[in-house]
Amino acid sequence: MNLNQLQLNKILKELDYLKSDVEYKTELIKEFDQKFISSVFEFLDTHPDLKKVYESKQTAKDNKVDEEKPIDSIVIDEPISEESINVDEPIIDIIEDIEELDENALKLKSLYRSIVKLTHPDKIKNINLNELYLKANVAYEKNDIFTIFEICSKLDIPYDLDESDKHKMSNEVLSLKGKSEFLETTYTWQWYHTTNEMLKQNIILNYIKAQLLK
């Protein structure tokens, strides 16, 4: 295995880990959001004056009238002239985008078929390979080319990466890292991972303050 392949495998493993990490944190926050909110109201019940202010603020939010202009009232400040429109450039961009999408779709389908040949439960009786088949199905439905690359690496299926693929993979890594870091800043995440009751109450109080300042 050459150096480029080793680097690629490292990125793919990092992507797989980050996806699992974000999914885990997202599901945990969903599961404990209601418990956190229940704790907020339990805290408010012990502080009636604060509860009254909080509920008043929430009611005001619920009754707030949408101040956005209706679409009929939106006007164009300056008329658009034919000279101001460059038709050729947008059309070229659209064509290039379509061609890139078509190329990616063909690549995805080709690699997916190669995976199916080696992992389909009707042909292969192997639990690990059958799990890869299921994973590939989900990835194919979501147009998740990176997971398809990862499965291909595990099955030694050759594939080519162009510069645009590498660029997208790097951006995906950065995006997932950002999501993971953001999830750790949520009140529910911090509240769940705090065992100290005083700190838990401080997190609840900070949440209430944030709601009142909105």
Chart the SSEs and their pairings.
Layout: H1 3-45, H2 48-62, H3 88-119, H4 127-141, H5 145-154, H6 163-183, H7 187-192, H8 197-213
Helix pairs in contact: 1-5, 1-6, 1-8, 3-4, 3-5, 4-5
Describe this structure in words.
With 214 residues, the protein is mainly alpha-helical. It is 74% helix and 0% strand. Helix 1 (3-45) crosses helix 8 and helix 3 runs parallel beside helix 5 (145-154). The longest helix is centred in the N-terminal third of the chain and has 43 residues, at 3-45. Residues 71-99 have low confidence and may be disordered.
Supply database-style keywords.
single chain, about 210 residues, mainly alpha
Shape: elongated
Please give the number of β-strands: 0
Fraction of helical residues? over 70%
Strand content: under 5%
Question: How would you sum up this structure in a few lines?
Answer:
The chain has 214 residues and is mainly α.
